[in-house]
Specification:
The chain is of the alpha+beta class and about 700 residues long. About 30% of the residues lie in helices and about 30% in strands. It is built from 19 helices and 38 strands. The strands form 11 sheets. A 6-stranded mixed β-sheet has the order 3-2-1-4-11-12. Strands 13, 14, 15, 18, 24 and 25 form a 6-stranded mixed β-sheet that branches. A hairpin with a 2-residue loop joins strand 19 and strand 20. The longest helix has about 30 residues. It starts with 5 loop residues before the first strand and ends with a strand.
Length: about 700
Amino acid sequence: MNTPRIRVGIDVGGTFTDAVAVDATTLELLGQVKVPTSHHHEDGVAHGIVEALDRLLEQTGCAPADVAFLAHGTTQATNALLEGDVATVGLIGIGTGPAAVLTRRLASFGKLELTPGKRLPLAYAHVTDPQDTAAVRHAVEELKGDGAQVLVASQPFSVDRPEGEQAVLDTARPYGLPLTAAHEITSLYGLHKRTRTAVVNAAILPRMLATADLVDASITKAGVTAPLMVMRCDGGVMALDEMRRRPLLTVLSGPAAGVAGALMQERVSEGVFLETGGTSTDISVVRRGKVAVRHATILGKTSYLSALDVRTVGVGGGSMVRIGGGRVTGVGPRSAHIAGLPYACFASPDQLRDAKVDTVRPMDGDPADYAVIDAAGGRFAVTLTCAANALGRVPEGDFARCDPQSARAAIAPLAAHLGTDVATAATRILDAGIAQVKTVVDAMIRDYRLDKDTAILVGGGGGAASVTPHLALSSDMEGRIARHNEVISPIGVALALVREQVERIVPGATQEQILAVRAEAERAVVAQGAAAEGVEVEVTVDPQTNTVRAVATGATELRTQDRSHRADDTERLRAAAASFKTDPAAVHVLAGTAAHTVYGTETRRRLRATRRPIRIVDVDGVVRHHAADAHVETTTVAGAPEVLARLVGESTSYGDGGVRAPALRLLLGARIADLSGVLDPQPLLALARSELRARAADEPVVAVLEVRS
């Protein structure tokens, strides 16, 4: 029997390191292990990563050579900033005249607070002429004398003229310190923000370099030949060499791993992902098949780091119930773990004999209104997980499932204290617990304009069943718990695509400039190991900020999934009808490729024109895109340029807000090429031609256009 090629994902958490092996063809979970995170080992977290890999290979019967893909996510960068465990940064400002005034102000970054009472360690030196090697050497020696362990060079307008920063680094290189130029971190204007982002990146650089080298050496020694990848904060992965250059991209990557799992394993195209642990719930959005990202706030300041838009609520499966005045007054933020108490629902009925309700103060300064049960077996915490189990909301086989009899016995004393029955008490607990979560979810649905008719709630994490099912009921939305929810983060790491984002500020960007940014992003992911044939690039042009952004994604190998489970025509039709919330008889096929089928129906609104909503369903029966009103037309690669020119011309609107081309998507082969981020017709058509390049002339192309108002 041949062992399968596997994709390995490893998630390094603060307490445990979780690892999974996923079949590279079927994407089936083959094995999972959990080991303590090795913070205090001489090799640091690298030791735990290798230990997890060894156990995983033993469990699955695979050899190191069977590993086709290996990636890890780590909280190390985040923790370094939270704990203030960073290197002293030597910042070299460059400039003369007015430019010198601007760069000298950058010395104020030494006032950035890492933790209460601890500031970012920074030393500043200035050079007026970056080509003056003697002056640069003097500046470097001055900074080394001040304890600098890493150097950053920054100059106004280095995005357009990087030669000065590069000259400083060339002169400083013989001194053996890690080096960073501000323009290498981001190509966006804004000296202050660009340099601050580069300085924070540099502060964690030495520590991350040391870990990267240890992990790389250990994996190589273990016999794994697949290149090591690292999880990014925007839901993708990057090559180890790229992480060595920009370790800041791993900050906030923990929540990104979970939503990547939901996106790739659960095939969510529109919805909210809730990753619930014992103490908190991370909430993020998937919109039209993509994770929602924004520039992150780091150390209380906005940065140029594009990270998952994740909002955290202090409610999790272990959150304790608060009572007062004969009612449930709240849930959390303290958890049973913080209070040092076991969950009541995991006790046996015998341990819960003679139970009485009491209230405690989990930590000094907390209110003394957290409910506990004192019983024959000791003291226990009443948690959200207890309430969810008592109501039967935790499915069979779930990580948080307990004996239903124990769950009801855990809630019964509190129900009696409140003067009600077990079901009502459990419902009140869950109502109080999800109230904060619902507020955030509703806000994110509004912020990202999700279609509540098609959006779903997906729960991940070990505590998913304590939040997502009840939230779905109270929100009147479809909800489900992700498969293997307790290891959704390492699954996300294992399935994540190589990702790169290139941003440029280009006033009045021409077709050639937009295509150049696109090509740069595509080259970047291919250079990191992505298979060129499968790379997808999404381009957005923001006319208000003059920003051209290209996000490229691709797999390190072209994955061909097992087709034995693929949906048939009837199943895909039912999926479309369910999304339309109509009878399958009212749904018809508009177009299709081998990988996608476009379904349509019609809705007539009183006093308004007929709308033509569509759904694009993939071969697995998953709705990958929806539109409230769209035009669909089929052509070929050879005929597409002429057809698209006509369609875009007919659908472009002109007004006080400027030119607005339609939102265009092309179904090509196995892909949906999303060109909706471009408003100008000519660059839009140029991008469409670039997508058609190198394809067979008779290959079918389906164009889906949405007119912008």
